[in-house]
Amino acid sequence: MDKTIRVALQEFKMNFARLEYKFFAFALPGLLLIITIAMSFFGLQFSLMQFKLMEKSFYFFAFPSTIAMVFSLAIFLSANFMLQGIAKEKENKILEILVSSVSFKQLLTGKILGLSMLGLIQFFTWVIVGVITIFLIAPEIFLEIFSSFLGTQIIVLYFLFFILGYLLYASLLAAIGVLTETRSQAQQIGTLLTGFVLIPALSSMFLTTNSTDLFSQIITYFPLTAPITAMIRIFLGTISPLEIALCLGILCITTAALIYITAKIFRAEVLMYGKKFSIRGLIHFILKT
Questions:
Q1: pLDDT tens digit string along 99-142?
Q2: Of 12, 108, 180, 238, which residue is most buried, by most CB within 10 angstroms?
Q3: Residue 9: which of 129, 124, 125, 102 has the closest Cα?
C-alpha cells in the first residue's frame, strides 16, 4: 500500500474516534433530525408564501447565519485536528521519526487526505439532514428548490467551497503546528484564526441588506473569509457567476500556494531540527530549496 494512503488511513481512524468529531458529525445533526421529525409529526410546516414573507423580515439573517456557523465549525473542526496532531507529534519528537520512513510530501498529503475524508463525512451528513429537514417542514420550498437544477447546483457549489475552505485552513494550521514549540502555543495561535472563520457568520445580518458593497466584496474575495461568505451569498442569491468563478480561482491559487509552502516548512523544520532559526532564515530556506 502506498505510504500516502497509509498515513491518510491512520489519520482518518485516529480522528474519527474523537468524541468532538462524533458529536458534531453525527450527534448534533441526529438531534436536529429528531426535532424536525417531531415538528412534522405535530403538523408544523412552512409554506412557500410564509417563507417569502420571512425573507422580508429583519430576522431573516438567522437562516444564512445558521448555515454559515454550521459549515464554519465543520471546516475549522477538521482542520484543527491537523494542528493538534502535528503539534503533538512535534512536541513528543514523533515528527522526526515519521519523516524517516515517509517523505515530507507523503506525510503532509496523507494527513490532508485523511482529514479531508472526515470533512466530507461531516459535509454530507449535514447536507442530508438539511435536505430531509426542508422536505419534512417545508415541502413546498423543497419542491421549488429541488425540482430544478438549482438544488443540485447549490450543493455542488457548497461542496467546492467547503473542500477549498478545509484545505486552506488545514494547510495553514499545519504550518502553525510545525512552527510552534508546544501544543498550547499552537492552540493559542490557531484559536486566533477562528475570528476569520466566524466573521462571515457574524456579518450575516449585514450581508442580507448590503451584500454588494465594499465590505461584502472584501470578505468575499479574502481567502480566509471567502468560503463561508460565498455560501451565504449563494443562499441569498446575491452573488453572480463571475464572482463565484473569481472567488473559486482565488481560493484555488491561495490553497495551492499554502500547501506548497507548508511542505517546504515541514522539510525546513525537520532538517534544521535543534538549530535556532529566524523567520528570515526560514524564508531563505524555503526559497532556496
A1: 667 877 788 888 888 988 888 898 899 889 988 998 898 888 78
A2: 108
A3: 102
Task: Let me know: does 231 contact 70? Beta carbons within 8 Å.
Answer: no
Instruction: Report the C-alpha gap between 226 and 196 in whole angstroms.
Output: 10
- Give the pLDDT of residue 58: 58
The reported pTM is 0.85
Residue with cell 486566533: 192
Neighbours of 160 (CB within 10 A): 17
CA distance 53 to 35: 24
Residue 139 cell numbers, joined:
415541502
**In this structure, are residues 170 and 112 in contact, taking their beta carbons and an 8 Å threshold?**
yes
SS3 content of the chain, % helix, strand, coil (to 5): 85, 0, 15
Helix residue ranges, H only, the chain = 3-16, 19-22, 28-41, 48-55, 62-91, 94-98, 104-137, 139-146, 149-179, 183-192, 194-202, 204-209, 214-221, 226-236, 241-271, 279-288
